[in-house]
Amino acid sequence: MDQRLYEGMSLREVTEFLFLEDTPQPADLILVFGGKHNERAEKAAELYHQGLAPRVLIVGGDARATQVPEAEALRQHCVALGVPDEAIWTETRSVRTLEHVLAATRIIAERLGWDRVRRILCVSAPAHMRRVKQVLTRHIPEGVEVLCCPDRREDVNRDNWWTTEKGRREVLRELEKVRTYALQGEL
């Protein structure tokens, strides 16, 4: 793995670069990026129950681990947490961040219309938030605000990622993905 992107970066600099988190504010939509962690559904349900957005869009079709697309598994968990099924839209074909964003922007355009969207709350893994925000911002109309609302994973987060091999691997992998997306012009 090429370490040029993060060579010489301190732990604090890596943390501040990747682990973006905004104060949630009222929005038009909660956008959840697929993943195998139920914490994403828990964060989406928390934001929904706080009345911060009337709709949840969950994107992600990876079904390799469970034979159930990530978006469907997360939808089921959101419903179990009290989010009304009719408040949830899902997309179950995309498998990587850029595909998630392209699918989400198409669904938003078709079902809501971009003229009715001013702010989106994005939910994903804490270390994934930089890439989520940059890719999404590139593909949505100017003026739509993107707020990062990372899930509450305890195993890898901004306060502990460097303390375990798993955390260090996940962060180095994410730095490499940011670098790759940038080199491919996807950021």
TrEMBL record:
Pfam families: DUF218. PANTHER family: DUF218 DOMAIN-CONTAINING PROTEIN (PTHR30336:SF20), INNER MEMBRANE PROTEIN, PROBABLE PERMEASE (PTHR30336). This is DUF218 domain-containing protein. Gene3D superfamilies: HUPs (3.40.50.620). Residues 28-151 form the DUF218 domain. One of its GO terms (cellular component) is plasma membrane. Coiled coil: none annotated.
